[in-house]
């Protein structure tokens, strides 16, 4: 198995830490094709992003998995901040980094994979960066719609004025307290120790990945500063999904995922070539570490789209 090389590149004013996986020895010659992999909200590059990077490496691609700005081993304060525009720039900066790998990566054969919230961020990036030649997503979501609706469920897909007011109020209070030099610890988005029968099913599924041996990592603590809300509130991942065409789009989602509606509406808004691939019986986080269907599907997709 290929051992990744740790690399760094700039994105806005931050230093992004990434791991570059080279094609495995004896793998199919992909003619320098490479895939950027962007991790979920509250995740880090060593979790599901690394799982996909290893699959791509074994299939002959270069794969670059990185920590988002403010998260993991990348720089930025406050830690854990979820800034959609930084996240989009991180993806574009990762593409820029791949273009400097002369003699290894073909800059005309770069694709992107986004997982969870990054399925949204990478959609936004691909809409506005023609260097990205193909986009795949797994369990895509939009943090703006989530923030405006109060949750990721289909029934929360409409704007809720009360939810918006509460989110902006919490962000404003956080900003004021920081301005007054209070040292604050951000709350956890997911906390398995406080869950009950009434806990949101999405949070239960997420905790089963992030806070168990399945996916636990010390740098992924699920703490998000409330100020993230006023950065996410007016952001939307999929408003210009049609701009991805004529480049190919593949969106993969579990049939039992609370977030399935995001991929359904995003694919509907996109133009051809596009595909929504449903994983029967799978929830939102199942494809984070079960790549039995997603791995071959994505390898075939990027193989046809980039080589």
Task: Determine the strand fraction and express it as a percent band.
Answer: 15-25%
- Which spans have pLDDT < 50 for at least 5 consecutive residues? none
Largest sheet: 8 strands, mixed
General form: globular
Radius of gyration, in Å, reads 18 Å
Helix vs. strand class: alpha/beta
Mean pLDDT: 97
Give the number of helices: 10
SSE string, helices as H and strands as E:
EEEHEHEHEHHHHEHEHH
Number of E-state strands? 8
Report, as a whole number of angstroms, the end-to-end distance.
23 Å
Please give a structural write-up.
- A hairpin with a 2-residue loop joins strand 1 and strand 2.
- Helix 2 packs across helix 3.
- The chain has helices at residues 45-58, 84-99, 117-127, 143-149, 161-179, 201-210, 228-232, 260-269, 286-289, 294-306; strands at 5-11, 14-21, 34-38, 62-66, 110-115, 134-138, 249-254, 274-279.
- The protein is of the alpha/beta class and 307 residues long.
- The chain contains ten helices and eight strands.
- The longest helix has 19 residues, at 161-179.
- The chain has an eight-stranded mixed sheet, with helices on both faces.
- The radius of gyration is 18 Å and the shape is globular.
């Amino acid at each position: 198995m290929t051992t990744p090389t740790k690399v760094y590149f700039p994105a806005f004013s931050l230093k992004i830490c990434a791991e570059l996986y080279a094609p495995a020895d004896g793998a199919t010659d992909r003619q320098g094709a490479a895939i950027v992999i962007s991790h979920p909200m509250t995740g880090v590059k060593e979790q599901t992003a690394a799982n996909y990077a290893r699959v791509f490496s074994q299939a002959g691609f270069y794969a670059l998995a990185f920590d988002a700005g403010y998260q993991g081993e990348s720089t930025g304060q406050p830690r854990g901040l979820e800034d959609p525009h930084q996240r989009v720039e991180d993806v574009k900066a990762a593409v820029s980094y791949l273009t400097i790998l002369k003699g290894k990566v073909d800059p005309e054969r770069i694709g992107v994979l986004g997982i969870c919230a990054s399925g949204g961020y990478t959609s936004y990036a691909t809409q506005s960066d023609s260097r990205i030649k193909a986009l795949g997503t797994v369990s895509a979501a939009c943090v703006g719609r989530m923030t405006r609706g109060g949750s990721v469920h289909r029934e929360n897909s409409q704007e809720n004025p009360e939810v918006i007011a509460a989110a902006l109020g919490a962000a404003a209070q956080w900003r004021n307290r920081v301005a007054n030099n209070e040292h604050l610890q951000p709350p956890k988005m997911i906390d398995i120790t406080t869950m009950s029968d009434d806990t949101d099913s999405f949070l239960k599924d997420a905790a089963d990945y992030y806070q168990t041996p399945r996916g636990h990592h010390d740098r992924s603590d699920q703490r998000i500063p409330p100020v993230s809300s006023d950065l996410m509130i007016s952001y939307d991942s999929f408003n210009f999904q049609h701009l991805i065409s004529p480049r190919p789009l593949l969106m993969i989602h579990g049939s039992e995922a609370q977030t399935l509606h995001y991929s359904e509406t995003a694919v509907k808004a996109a133009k051809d070539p596009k595909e929504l691939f449903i994983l029967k019986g799978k929830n939102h986080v199942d494809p984070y570490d079960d790549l039995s269907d997603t791995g071959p599907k994505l390898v075939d997709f990027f193989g046809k789209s980039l080589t």
